[in-house]
Design a protein that fits this description.
Strand content of chain A: 35-45%
Distance between the termini of chain A: 38 Å
Mean pLDDT of chain B: 92
Low-confidence stretches of chain A: none
Number of helices of chain A: 0
Largest sheet of chain B: 7 strands, mixed
Radius of gyration of chain A: 13 Å
Strand content of chain B: over 45%
Helix content of chain B: under 10%
Structural class of chain B: mainly beta
Oligomer: heterodimer
Largest interface: A-B, 21 and 23 residues
Radius of gyration of chain B: 13 Å
Mean pLDDT of chain A: 90
Structural class of chain A: mainly beta
Number of helices of chain B: 0
Helix content of chain A: under 10%
Strand order of the largest sheet of chain A: 1-9-8-3-4
Chain lengths: 111, 115
């Protein structure tokens, strides 16, 4: 399974864009990149996912490099409520449903 | 929709007692997952069901743990006997497996403390 590498923690000023990187250099061609976040004391929350193309939804944008070895989650205007642990996950090919959550990036949005 | 519902939200029990955690998935979802989260090990998948059938229970730590899904709207995770090292937050998640997306929806979790 493709492993992901994320920085342990990041800070971002309120109102600014938060750019969270993720490396997944061993990703295979049919594996998607998923992003989830977990706000303290809550269950993980789906944010966005993609395969090759950049994706955008009401929560965030996902930029995937052309070689697919890394990606960046962008929160365009971070708020205090975006303070959370952000997980980058690559779905394991051939096993259907499992997600393997790593340690994620702890994002702190500063007023 | 109310989302994934878990009960109880908090459980405190003594070592050796039986503990039963409950989960109601989102209506229409046919895959259900049980996770455990601790500071030391992070978020771990314990078991998942597809159409009420257990597919992979390789994450279940030992025989003291068992999970059932008697119907599409209910699942239980049981620990018997419980031990202090079982203290963790247990999450249930569900998804609809018919589409191409593997997006999972998580419940609020059950915080278990075994003394």
């Amino acid at each position: 399974d493709a492993k992901t590498t994320q920085p342990t923690s990041m800070d971002c000023a309120e109102g600014r864009a938060a750019n969270l990187p993720c490396n997944h250099s061993t990703i295979s061609g049919n594996e998607y990149v998923y992003w989830y976040r977990q706000i303290h004391s809550q269950g993980p929350q789906y944010i966005i996912h993609g395969l090759k193309n950049n994706e955008t939804n009401e929560m965030a944008s996902l930029i995937i490099t052309e070689d697919r070895k890394s990606s960046t989650l962008i929160l365009p205007h971070a708020t205090l409520r975006d303070t959370a642990v952000y997980y980058c996950i690559v779905r394991v090919a051939g096993t259907g449903n499992q997600f393997y959550f790593g340690t994620g990036t702890s994002l702190t949005v500063i007023p | 929709d109310a989302g994934v519902i878990q009960s109880p939200r908090h459980e405190v029990t003594e070592m050796g007692q039986e503990v039963t955690l409950r989960c109601k998935p989102i209506s229409g979802h046919n895959s259900l997952f049980w996770y455990r989260q601790t500071m030391m090990r992070g978020l771990e998948l314990l078991i998942y069901f597809n159409n009420n059938v257990p597919i992979d229970d390789s994450g279940m730590p030992e025989d003291r743990f068992s999970a059932k899904m008697p119907n599409a709207s209910f699942s239980t995770l049981k620990i018997q006997p419980s031990e202090p090292r079982d203290s963790a937050v247990y999450f249930c998640a569900s998804r609809h497996s018919g589409g191409r997306s593997y997006e999972q929806y998580f419940g609020p979790g059950t915080r278990l403390t075994v003394t």
